[in-house]
């Protein structure tokens, strides 16, 4: 790819054993390092937003740190704009790549403006004096991230969401073609998560940045990313990474396999995991649209196995115009009188009552 920003070539990531551990464990067969993931061949181009997904402990932070040059690869290489990172001076790397970590920053007494201005350090002299152009970039980063309202405050006084935006502002002020973010949406409420993801999408689309963020938000990753890097554990506990567009990962069953747990099932239609309801009593459901969808969810939660369109068993018929005058008719079967309800709550009580009566008889 000609506008490739980061490429990895046969990269292996992980940890060298500390000398004490190495001596304690030393046997001819014992390795001197722990490989977290291997055979990693990834590529991100400018203008792309990539989400890095994977179960806890699969190695997302380790990969982020290795891509950022904060941690050495065990083997293989990382290329930044086609140049091997191992041969680049830290200042050169800082002009190409910025890293946003979630850890609480130890700069509580620093003002927001001063922290964002730190993003200009690769371009300033040892005194850190900002030129007019630097100041302008800092102001623009503050505007872009919507942090102007608290630019004069101290970092220690900010909420998690506000602080996260400031850390992103610092990365924007650093003005690098690549931005890496380790769990930028952790601890944030839904509106803040959406705001941060749409800001990152804008940076990719409008400013041509290559953005990689690690996250546990499956739904956001499926909606927002151009590509997902999914860390998958294989038999020997070393992870491998699948890189694909979100829809292919769902259709090919990779997400389901990577996060599968007993008691949960992956719904390929919504791209989300949900409780596996082992309902034994069957209930037919006649109706469609959003009301039918939530009626089905309610019946499953109450322990029913829902059979769409079946009217030859006990069943529910929905009528009404979605927003008003909704009616649920429950036919309990065996010539029982139908129960008509105007709310889902009442319907559920009628169905549960009938299930209990069936169990007793
Ligand atoms: N400093 C370290 N020394 C040795 N092993 C480490 C070190 N840091 C992390 N690990 C191990 O490396 C593996 C990957 O950890 P990492 O933090 O990269 O995973 P993660 O996918 O980011 O996890 P999470 O989703 O829980 O944040 C884990 O088994 C972890 O125990």
Would you give an account of this structure?
- This protein has 361 residues and is α/β, with parallel strands linked by helices.
- It has three domains: 181 residues, 3-Layer(aba) Sandwich (Rossmann fold); 65 residues, no CATH class; 78 residues, Rossmann fold, CATH 3.40.50.
- Helix content is 34%, strand content 27%.
- It is built from twelve helices and 18 strands.
- Strands 7-8-9-4-10-11 form a six-stranded mixed sheet, sandwiched between helices.
- A hairpin with a 7-residue loop joins strand 16 and strand 17.
- It is elongated, with a radius of gyration of 27 Å.
- The protein binds adenosine-5'-triphosphate.
- Adenosine-5'-triphosphate binds next to strand 2 and helix 2.
What is bound: which ligands?
adenosine-5'-triphosphate
Helical/strand content category:
alpha/beta
Give the overall shape: elongated
Radius of gyration based on Cα positions: 27 Å
**Mean pLDDT score:** 88
CATH architecture of the largest domain: 3-Layer(aba) Sandwich
Q: What is the CATH third-level topology name of the largest domain?
A: Rossmann fold
**Major sheet:** 6 strands, mixed
Give the fraction of residues assigned to helices.
25-40%
* Tally of DSSP helical segments: 12
CATH homology superfamily of the largest domain: P-loop containing nucleotide triphosphate hydrolases
> Quick one: how many beta strands?
18
What count of structural domains? 3
CATH secondary-structure class of the largest domain: Alpha Beta
Spatial sequence of strands, sheet with the most strands: 7-8-9-4-10-11
Low-confidence stretches: none
Distance between the termini: 69 Å
| Beta-strand proportion | 25-35%
The SSE order reads EHEEEHEEHEHHHEHEHEEHHEEEHEEEEH
